[in-house]
Every structure is written in structure tokens, then in C-alpha cells.
Amino acid sequence: VALGMGANINDIMRAIAPLQDISPTDPKAQDAWWTNWNAAGERLDGVAADYAAQGLWLAAQHSHIRASAMYSLAERMLPLDDLRKNKAHTASIHALCASEAACALAGASHSFTYLHFPYGEHTLSGYLYKPANTAATMPCAIALNGFDGTKELAYLSGFAEAMGARGIASFIIDQPGTGEALRRHNMPLEIESEHAAGAAYDFIANDPHIDAGRIAIVGQSLGGYYAPRAAAMDDRFAACIAWAGFYSMQLYYEQENPSAEGLPGIMEYAFRAYGVANEQELVEKALKLTLVPVLDKIKVPFLCAHGGNDQQTGPLHATRAVAGAVNSPNAKAHIFTEDEGASEHCGVDNLALVNAYRADWLAQQFAPAA
Questions:
Q1: What is the CA radius of gyration of the chain?
Q2: How far apart are CA 272 and CA 262, in angstroms?
Q3: pLDDT digits (tens, 9 = 90+) for 311-346
Q4: Cβ atoms of 166 and 360 closer than 8 Å
Q5: Helix (H) or strand (E) run with residue 339 in it
Q6: Which residues of 194-223 are buried (b: 16+ CB within 10 A; e: fewer)?
Q7: Of 45, 89, 144, 299, which one has the fewest beta carbons inside 10 Å?
């Protein structure tokens, strides 16, 4: 994951070297993880500041990106109530914004804006990336996170850059249950994902550079439920991509999910993310995550890109979701093989390929009719 987010192998090896002799079950493991990855982020931010002081803007941008990735990895192993988690998450945001500020000073042709938009009594946040585009307006992909994702992880994965290469803007948001919405506003996930997705649409459709008739909804991991649900319930979305399908939580429970075992604090995180008090309430709410009743309401092009070796949500989630989208004019499941790469969950083994594939597919859907 770190490699796909802009960190390099030297950054990673330096961060994990002191951890080699610590057992994952050791109470000191979480502290050691945070200490090493966070220190790497601080070191790289310092390097970036030195470059910036010399006017070496691209070098500064590169180092800030690496810092943001290290901060994002630092916070992932900490519980939500640990103040260091929010500290590292905030540092990741700042480093990412600093990287784009440096990029702009270097004469970048794209634009990047950290935005907040209204949602009920709160606000949600997102990154708007616009490629250089000579057209009057451009299409846009609104991206939703998975269960424990953040907009920083999604942005650092290269999603926006790949979409931009095909002339498509990106609006990557932290919807309820994820990122800033959960950490800063304690907003749990919502079964009705169309509400937050619709608020993002309302906001971005007012941008004079965005073509309101060509806005797609994209989701990764558990976002493979959120995005299709939003597309089914809000007919303003012009296309939908699930980056790993998620047919239903019932199917998830029926399958073995070895990758979910051993994650520190996973149940405590789930209670907060779902907004529940105990395991019974968690299961009851989780089982409401099903696309079965809404798939036939999807009436736009629909892609499920899924890893053939996905150990978290198997390919059956993608094939069943696509089979159920009987009213989509172009429903497609692409199962990435080991020969292609990107065969693991969300294509973490080859993020660049998954991003390129999705961008190409969406550009085809938005291309003028022949």
C-alpha cells in the first residue's frame, strides 16, 4: 500500500526495520509502529521544507507526498480515541496540501483544492482535482472511501492523476463513517449512501468547470456498496464504478476473510464507524448493507473492477452485483488476474493499473457518441 501511495522502498525499509523483532501481539507493537512511521513523515516534511527554501518546488512536492503517505500509514494501527491518530491524520492532510502548493509553484497544469461542503448540521470535506482542460466543462468522478479508508489514501493512490490523464476531474470525499467525518465529527456510516453522495453532487455540480451531466460515482472496498447504492437511488449520476464489488454483508459473512483477522482494535473501530454500542447492534446494522434490493435501479453504465485473488471480498461480490444490474446499459465485471497484476483486494498490488483501467473505462462512457 505504501509503495502505491508514493512512499519509496527506502522510506518503508527504514520505518519497519526497528519493528522486525517485535511481535504483532506485543502491547508495544502499536506504539512502535506509530513512532517509526510518524518519525519518517516528520523527517520527510523537514526535507521538503529545505527544498522549498531553495525554490526547488518539484523536489519539495515529491518529499511532501512521501511524508503524507508515511503519516497515513502511521495512524492506521492506532485506535480512534488515541490522540496520536488524529495528529498523524492531520499531518497527512497538511503534507498533502503542501505538496500541491509546491506543485503549483512549479507551474503545474492541474489544480487542487481542499474543500468543505454542507451536509446536514455538519460539513464534509474533499479534494477537488481538475486536470488541465481546454474544454468549457469537464466530467467528474466523485470518490467514496471504504470501511476504514480516508480521502488521503485514495488521493495518494494516484486515482485523481489517472482520471486527470483522461480529462476527468475528481472529487475525493470523506463520507460519514470515514476520515474527517468520523474522526472530527463522529459521524457514523450511513446505509443510505445516496445522501452524502448527493450532497457532494449538489456541491460540485455548481462548479462552472464541471459538466453536471457527466458526474460519476466511484467507491472502493466497502465503497463497492456505497457507490452502486448511490447510483441506484440518485439518477443524476451518469456512471458508477465499484473498485472491488460489495454485493452484501451477508455474503461477506458467509465467506472466509482471513485478511480481517488480527487487525488491532478492529471491533472497537467498527463500533465507532457503525455508531453502535455492541456486537449485536453491529451485526444488525451491517446486515443492512446489501445491494440486492437496489441493483435493478441502476440505469447507467456500471463497472465492478475486482481482484481475482481478493482475500477480503471475493470476486463473487462483483459478479453477483453485475448480474443483478439488469437495467444498466453496460454492466461489466473485470476480474484482474495475477498475470495482469492488481489481483489483490482493491488492486493494492498494482494500484497504477487499476487506476488506469477505471479511468480508461470511464472516459469511454463519457466519450461523444459516434
A1: 20
A2: 18
A3: 889 999 999 999 999 999 999 999 999 999 999 998
A4: yes
A5: none
A6: bbbbbbbbebbeebeebbbebbbbbbbbbb
A7: 299
